Amino acid sequence: MSTEFLQVEWLGNTVADYGLAIATIAIGFIAIAVIRAVVMTRLRQWATRTATDLDDRLLGLIEQPIARLLGLGVIYLSLGNLTLHPILQDALNGVCVLIATLFVVQLTGSLVEYGVRVYWVTKRGDATLEQSLNAIVPAIKVVVWAIGAVFLLDNLGFDISAVVASLGIGGIAIALAAQGILGDLFSYFSILLDRPFEIGDFIIVGDLVGTVEQVGIKTTRLRSITGEELVAANTDLTSSRIQNFKRMQRRRIVFSLGVTYETTQDQMQRIPDLIATAIAQAASVTFDRAHFSSFGDFSLNYEVVYYVETGDYAVYMDAQQTINLAIKSSFEAAGIEFAYPTQLLYLTNQNGEPVAANNHGNGNGAATVGSHS
């Protein structure tokens, strides 16, 4: 009696077929529950022993989507063994493909965002990188959803070749109409990925000088030394040479000074040591060399090189001031005079005999010129 009942057909399937489908669903969900209870519990225990909570977040991201995909697979396999009306079969296939695509796209988007966040954690404290990642994540998600939509339409039987072709033609038209905007957009991503500068960096680009305050999709904003805001297109920045002074670790300083031709040989030999002693009095500097370099029109010229062990411009100026004052003090103590532009005039009387010689200058002062590189 029971066997005959199992062979009773209803909607093209026997009771035994329906029972097998129900049993498959039940066993499948029990197996999924066991897997989650055993495997995921082991993984959580392992994650709690690690130093970071990133693996805990990863388990939280993948647990639900994977369980849902497995459950959907169990339902599809159990119902797939039944003989269904073609319309119902197509509907089942379409619904399963739709739901599976949504789950996969959501899981992929979550994993991409997780990977980006993990990368940001390794670079924590970088404001430019955080801004970059916040801009890149939505764009990546849009690409993932677009790929998922194309995959879904293709599996539902739609002819996507015409859609892709129309999208391509439309994309070309949009690109031609918005060349400037797209150029700045691509330059924006170039800045984010290549990172020639970051927020807070002091840069020089052409005639623009300032501190980077914001990197936007179309423009980058700088704060100039005098206080006003400078706005530059991203394409202008990526197509120009950029001087980034914040990344300077060591500043090389070269300056020259001149002494009078009346300076004695002994005094000239002492000058390099006097300069080295003066430089040693400044903080955060390293003396390199000081040499008698050339005979000038009105001075004996010395070239001096030293290093400032930081990129801070204020530290450099403080050091240069300390060095200049120390050199002047030591030269005064040694009786060494700085040279200044001088012209010697020879006068003769009516007989052509010299009668006087006068020196004319433009004033007293140290002929010291500083430069930095």
Protein described:
The chain is an alpha+beta fold and 373 residues long. The chain has 3 domains: 2-158, no CATH class; 181-244, SH3 type barrels (Roll); 251-372, Alpha-Beta Plaits, CATH 3.30.70. 56% of the residues lie in helices and 21% in strands. It contains 10 helices and 13 strands. It has helices at residues 2-6, 15-48, 54-80, 86-122, 127-155, 160-177, 179-194, 234-238, 265-280, 313-334; strands at residues 9-10, 13-14, 202-205, 208-215, 219-224, 229-233, 242-244, 251-259, 285-295, 300-308, 342-348, 354-361, 368-372. The strands form 4 sheets. The chain has a 5-stranded antiparallel beta sheet. A 4-stranded antiparallel beta sheet has the order 9-10-8-13. It has a two-stranded antiparallel ribbon with strand order 1-2. The longest helix has 37 residues, at 86-122. It is elongated and about 150 Å long.
Using brief descriptors, characterize the structure shown.
Alpha-Beta Plaits, alpha+beta, SH3 type barrels, 56% helix
User: How many domains, as an integer?
Assistant: 3
Strand content: 15-25%
Radius of gyration computed on alpha carbons: 40 Å
Count of discrete alpha- or pi-helical segments spanning 4 or more residues: 10
What strand line-up does the widest sheet have? Answer: 6-5-4-3-7
Q: How does the overall form come out from the CA principal axes?
A: elongated
Major sheet details: 5 strands, antiparallel
**What share of residues is helical?**
55-70%
Q: What low-confidence regions span 5 or more consecutive residues with pLDDT below 50?
A: 358-373
Mean pLDDT: 77
